[in-house]
Amino acid sequence: MIISTTDPITMNNIADPDNHPSIIEGKGKTAIRIYFESEDTRQIWLEICGDSNQNLSHPTEFESN
């Protein structure tokens, strides 16, 4: 999986991604997890790109390994 810690809306780097919302687009090795600064910027992304192919994640939804 590819991981992007740059919020695509604000273009700011997410220093602590485990405590920020994210989405996963795609599946397998080519999937990408995109982190967002806030739920607001994640919602903007979903409005622009749609949410039909994403697995949505929020910090409260992370599972312990």
Entry summary:
The chain is an alpha+beta fold and 65 residues long. It has one domain.
Structure write-up:
This protein is α+β, with helices and mostly antiparallel strands and 65 residues long. Helices cover 17% and strands 23% of the residues. It has one domain. Strands 1-3-2-4 form a four-stranded mixed sheet, with no helix packed on it. The chain is globular.
Tally the beta strands. 4
Q: What's the helix-strand series?
A: EEEHE
Largest sheet report: 4 strands, mixed
Distance between the termini: 16 Å
What is the number of helices? Answer: 1
Number of domains: 1
Structural class, from helix and strand content?
alpha+beta
Average predicted confidence as pLDDT: 83
Widest sheet: strand ordering:
1-3-2-4
Shape: globular
Q: Helix fraction?
A: 10-25%
Radius of gyration of CA atoms, rounded to a whole number: 11 Å
Query: pLDDT under 50 segments (min length 5)?
Result: 60-65
Beta-strand proportion: 15-25%
